[in-house]
Write a structure and sequence with these properties.
By secondary structure, this protein is α/β, with parallel strands linked by helices. The chain has helices at 11-21, 24-31, 38-49, 93-104, 118-131, 150-163, 181-193, 234-241, 253-261, 283-293, 296-300, 312-320, 330-363, 368-373; strands at residues 67-69, 72-74, 78-80, 108-110, 140-144, 168-171, 245-250, 266-269, 302-306, 325-328. The structure holds ligand FNR. This is Mitochondrial cytochrome-like protein b2.
């Protein structure tokens, strides 16, 4: 018996609910990370190391948390990250998530490796939009795992465009799949119990990022970036897409600069939720590196962060340090697993209420925009 969703106040509460709701196999897949988990742990620990420097007696009677993502206004400085095969997590898969997203007026990024097709997901978005009237500012973006075959890649990009996605999040941190230790262990146990001994090759786990359920109902889409991709390819990807591109998975200042020089509209500082490279920098470390060595990137590009941001305080820290907005991954999957679209809504409320009341009123400056400019690190 799951607790009532209103009892879920923190990400930890959703996590506990999801753990009891999900079959062990899928719990392992969602909560898992690469190797011994150091990248994931760093994501969580690093945000906690930053402290607020409270100012008092400022007028915080009205707080505007709003901003925009690729020109699309949002009342929240966070969005739902791209996560594949949601059909493993909830029978309603991505459409179930999208219902919650639209009802809350959130923005969301839809994975190439989704259980449902880009068109099916967009259909559910439109259906929900018509239910809530024209009130929801919610917009969907498309996360691209670039297929190796260029014709297939162009077809996929055009399909996403035709479906109505408003931007591409090109995932660049996955030319090889990370070593998902817990998944591997589980697969080895299952194989042994069937009397098989599985062969494992380095850098290539049996299965992969999204291998548990076939994406797109088994249709032909990749679950990783074509390993042949280079900066040169951005040109034809842009020609095919004809719209804004965000590089997802930037992990150092040099690549942030290259993204700027190649005309990308945005970058997402991310180590894929600690699921890819072992001992990768957290988004916070990369953000601080950019602030030090090429702060102009923060003026010229939209700079997103994700990985380990678990409550409103973390989101606030990221915005104060110059991020445009924040991607939230596992917390939303946990909420989906336990409560479906209602969980997506509740998880949003729990974050924004912390932002609005818990943090700003008690400890911070006047408005979001004000504190963005006036932040100092201790
Ligand atoms: C992901 N992520 C991901 N990223 C991507 O570009 N394409 C994908 O298909 C997926 N799939 C996926 C599945 C699961 C189960 C997880 C947990 C993550 C990475 C995701 O977009 C994001 O970078 C991280 O999840 C952010 O970290 P937190 O918020 O989960 O700590």
């Amino acid at each position: 018996e799951l607790p009532h969703p209103s009892l879920c106040v923190t990400t930890g509460d959703f996590e506990a609910a999801a753990k009891s709701a999900l079959p062990h196999r899928f719990w392992t897949y969602v909560s898992g990370s690469a190797n011994s988990g150091l990248s994931l742990k760093g994501n969580l620990d690093d945000w906690a190391r930053i402290r607020f420097r409270p100012r008092v007696l400022r007028n915080v009677g009205t707080v505007d948390m709003g901003g925009s993502i690729l020109g699309h206004k949002t009342q929240f400085p966070f969005y739902v990250s791209a996560m594949g095969t949601m059909g493993n997590i909830h029978p309603g898969a991505e459409p179930e998530t999208v219902r919650g997203i639209v009802r809350k007026g959130l923005h969301g990024v839809i994975s190439t490796a989704s259980t449902k097709t880009p068109d099916e997901i967009m259909d559910s978005y439109r259906r929900e939009q018509s239910q809530v009237g024209d009130a929801s500012p919610s917009v969907l973006f498309f996360q691209l795992y670039l297929p190796t075959d260029r014709e297939k890649a162009v077809a996929l990009i055009k399909r996403a465009k035709a479906a109505g996605y408003q931007g591409i999040w090109l995932t660049v941190d996955t030319p090889l799949l990370g070593k998902r230790t817990a998944d591997r262990r589980l697969q080895a146990i299952e194989a042994l119990s069937m009397g098989l001994e599985q062969e494992q090759t380095p850098n290539r786990p049996i299965g992969g990022e999204n291998s548990l359920a076939p994406a797109f109902g088994g249709r032909d889409v990749p679950g990783q970036l074509s390993p042949h991709t280079t900066w040169e390819d951005l040109k034809w990807i842009r020609d095919a897409w004809q719209g804004p591109i965000v590089l997802k998975g930037i992990q150092c200042a040099d690549d942030a600069k290259l993204a700027m020089e190649h005309g990308c509209e945005g970058i997402l500082l991310s180590n894929h939720g600690g699921r890819q490279l072992h001992t990768a920098p957290s988004a916070l470390m990369t953000l601080l590196e950019i602030r030090t060595y090429c702060p102009e990137v923060l003026d010229k590009l939209e700079v997103y962060v994700d990985g380990g941001l678990r409550d409103g305080a973390d989101v606030l820290k990221a915005i104060c340090l110059g991020a445009t907005a924040v991607g939230v991954g596992r917390p939303y999957l946990y909420a989906l697993a336990a409560y479906g679209s209602r969980g997506i809504e509740r998880c949003t409320d729990s974050k924004s209420s912390m932002l609005r009341f818990g943090v700003l009123r008690v400890t911070l400056l006047t408005t979001f925009k004000y504190c963005r400019k006036n932040w100092r690190l201790l």
